[in-house]
């Protein structure tokens, strides 16, 4: 028995080493197994958080009133008179060429005109703010000239006019004034494409007569602010009535 024990002792060391080696290899395989990888879930979680952080909040349509006369989002049309109906802005200032607009609208208009000028385009303000009484005169003249049916497609009654808000402006350029031809000039096309950048929309777009109540007027711009103008452009919504579901 003593002799046999001495023969077995030299074999124990290699066996122990073999067992340790197998254990190390098995642990390494397990560590590389997809089921034990904790890095990937963290990466996915981080990616999810990044995507969530990049999501923009929904546009707030209630940011400004569409009913208050002095709001830059006020919607005035044939069925939505100004309140009070004889409203007059208290921050009117010169928009050039003898025309008046509200202060914020003037700043935006000047910025837009300067940008157009850098591209060799000449835009001019032709008809800005009109008081209740002035609009009454304009509307009466239109009725006398064209008859009420036609006048109602191209002129607003006093108290229903965008010009009375101090945010509407008729412009011209490219050899064309307050006429349909303005839409075909380089100036008219530039404004239609870039006006939203400065907070303006074409208030009475082509093909939307049944929505706005007025015929296409490529020269008539309305200041609504850069945020709303950009959102209308992004959503391809061309009238205030449709944007606010009126």
Any key phrases for this structure?
single chain, 246 residues, alpha+beta, Muramoyl-pentapeptide Carboxypeptidase, domain 2, four-stranded antiparallel β-sheet, two-stranded antiparallel ribbon, 6 strands, disordered N terminus
SSE order and pairing:
Blueprint: H1 2-32, H2 39-54, E1 92-96, E2 99-102, H3 103-117, E3 123-127, H4 132-146, H5 148-154, E4 168-173, H6 186-194, E5 200-204, H7 209-212, E6 217-223, H8 226-234, H9 240-243
Helix pairs in contact: 4-5
Summarize the structure.
By secondary structure, the protein is an alpha+beta fold.
The biggest sheet amounts to: 4 strands, antiparallel
Number of separate domains: 2
What kind of oligomer do you see?
single chain
Work out the radius of gyration: 35 Å
Q: Helicity range of the residues?
A: 40-55%
Describe this protein's structure.
It is a single chain. The strands form 2 sheets. This protein has a 4-stranded antiparallel beta sheet with strand order 3-4-6-5. The relative contact order is 0.12. A hairpin with a 2-residue loop joins strand 1 and strand 2. It has 2 domains: 53 residues; 152 residues, 2-Layer Sandwich (Muramoyl-pentapeptide Carboxypeptidase, domain 2), CATH 3.30.1380. The longest helix is centred in the first third of the chain and has 31 residues. Helix 4 packs across helix 5. It is globular and about 110 Å long. The protein contains 9 helices and 6 strands; from the N terminus they run H-H-E-E-H-E-H-H-E-H-E-H-E-H-H. The chain has 246 residues and is an alpha+beta fold.
């Amino acid at each position: 028995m003593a002799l046999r024990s001495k023969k077995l002792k030299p074999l124990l060391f290699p066996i122990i080493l073999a067992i340790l080696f197998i254990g190390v290899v098995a642990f390494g395989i397990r560590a590389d197994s997809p089921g034990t990888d904790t890095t990937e879930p963290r990466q996915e979680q981080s990616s999810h958080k990044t995507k969530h952080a990049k999501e923009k909040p929904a546009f707030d349509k209630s940011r400004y009133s569409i009913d208050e006369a002095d709001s830059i989002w006020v919607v005035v049309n044939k069925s939505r008179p100004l309140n009070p109906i004889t409203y007059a802005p208290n921050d009117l200032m010169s928009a050039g060429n003898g025309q008046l607009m509200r202060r914020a609208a003037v700043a935006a208009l000047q910025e837009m005109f300067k940008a157009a000028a850098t591209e060799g385009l000449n835009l001019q303000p032709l008809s800005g703010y009109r008081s209740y009484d002035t609009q009454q005169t304009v509307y009466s003249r239109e009725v006398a000239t064209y008859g009420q049916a036609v006048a109602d497609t191209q002129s607003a009654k006093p108290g229903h006019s965008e010009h009375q808000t101090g945010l509407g402006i008729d412009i011209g350029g490219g050899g064309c004034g307050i006429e349909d031809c303005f839409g075909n000039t380089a100036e008219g096309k530039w404004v239609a494409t870039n006006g939203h950048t400065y907070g303006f929309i074409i208030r009475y777009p082509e093909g939307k007569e049944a929505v706005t109540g007025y015929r296409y007027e490529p020269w008539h711009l309305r200041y609504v602010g850069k945020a709303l103008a950009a959102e209308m452009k992004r959503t391809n919504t061309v009238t205030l009535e449709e944007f606010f579901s009126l």
